[in-house]
Amino acid sequence: MKKILSGILYGILFGLAILLFAACIFLIINTAKRNDQSYSDMEAVIIDDKGESDDTAYDEISAEVSTEMPYAYRTVELRYAYDALDSQNKRYIYEQIDGNVYSVSNEKDDNGRYRIVRLRISGERMSESDIREAVNAYIYDNPQIFWLENLFGYAYANEDTIVEFYSVLSAEECADCIDLFNRKVDDIIMSLKSGLGEYEREKILHDRLLSVCKYKSGIESSKDGWQYFSAYGAIVTGEAVCEGYAKSMQILLSKAGIPCLTIRGESGGVSHMWNVVEVNNEWYHLDPTWDDNDKDGFIIYEYFNLDNDNIIKTHKINADIKTIRSGEKEVDVSSKARYNFFVPLCTSMNMNYYNREGIFIDEFDVDTDASVINEMVKKVNDGEHYLHIKFGDSMDYSEYINMMFYKSPYKCYYYIDHANDMLDVKISKKSITVLKNENNSTLRVKLVTEEN
């Protein structure tokens, strides 16, 4: 009998131990999920504030982010998100952040954060989601304010709302980083000569950004480093994730007179951020992160100025805030910045890289042969590495590829042979590598010379 009771007791204790272990695992997993967030996911905390005066000592940052071009091109003022805000209180928060973001403490508070001057909205108990929307709007329009932490605190004092913001850097650190940031941005901007068209400016700045920044893999949240999600990280330290690329592109193009915004969305079920740009009065999608994914370190231009039909083949665009408010789409705006403030309709491919600078092949005739051969010769003589081809619609994409590489007339090898007749440094036929993009009906051929 004692053995039976002992066995039952042992079984109960063993079962409780298993349940406790499972509960701990469940807690760890869910804690990890809560911490796995993009930097743009604005968090909120309740602060202890009864309306008393703020006794924090704030210092004015002694440097400001430059907003003017050194010459020639007028900076575009971005107010798209501000214009999308639907209440005066939301606009008030936006304006007050803009007026106080350079007032930062040099000493950390009790929670280990550098505070930015507190705001008070009188006579209104604003909801957490409304505050978050206003803050996200400010960040959307002002990517140059890289020190603003993705966190705000709020409290209610009678019918008033108290809101405070935080900086990832002290006032002194901010000043040093802003000076360095300005110098790096100006260095990139000075790549532009006066009198360039919008497409030429866009391409030069796109290429310069990708020459100074490389994608930082293995980053999941701001706990891995705030700089990777910022223009500061992309332009100054040279490493960033998609958010840093997109914010940098927004700053550079806007300073060069080209409207440029960030777009939030997904690709393959993973959160992603890219840009929309207005070039010659038409909007396009531009993804600098995906243009920088070549293992050889060269720019690929597969996502340089696409229309909606082409971008949605690989990207999912999140809804804009007006659509959400109208009830057309249900999105939880109370917790994450998974919406956009302005999504323009992109219907043109006129300024697409392949359409502007690639070789167009609709049929394999004498004129096409001459164009491709001459372009190959020019690329090699100019020290460039890639030939970009855009196919028409007279054949299926697979048929174009077959005729280029896999069946008679093996056009790619024909082109190389005739180009080599005109070149001192020959193109190798043994080291041909290609990037096929059936979605966009494009082909990129890497030109490797025999001396390499």
Report on the architecture of this protein:
It contains 15 helices and 17 strands. The chain has 452 residues and is of the alpha+beta class. It folds into 3 domains: 125 residues, no CATH class; 151 residues, Roll (C8orf32 fold); 89 residues. Helix 3 crosses helix 4 and helix 6 runs antiparallel to helix 8.
- Structure classification: alpha+beta
Percent of residues in helices: 25-40%
Total number of strands: 17
Largest sheet, spatial ordering of strands:
12-11-10-9-13
CATH fold naming of the largest domain: C8orf32 fold
Annotation field: number of helices: 15
Largest sheet: 5 strands, antiparallel
Summarize the topology:
Layout: H1 2-35, E1 43-46, E2 58-60, H2 80-84, H3 88-100, E3 103-105, E4 114-121, H4 128-141, E5 148-157, E6 160-167, H5 171-189, H6 198-212, E7 214-215, H7 231-237, E8 239-240, H8 242-255, E9 260-267, E10 270-279, E11 282-286, H9 288-291, E12 304-306, H10 308-311, E13 316-317, H11 321-325, H12 353-357, E14 359-361, H13 366-381, E15 386-391, H14 397-406, H15 411-420, E16 433-437, E17 442-446
Parallel strand pairs: 1-5, 7-8, 14-15
Antiparallel strand pairs: 2-3, 4-6, 5-6, 9-10, 9-13, 10-11, 11-12, 15-17, 16-17
Helix pairs in contact: 3-4, 6-8, 7-8, 13-15
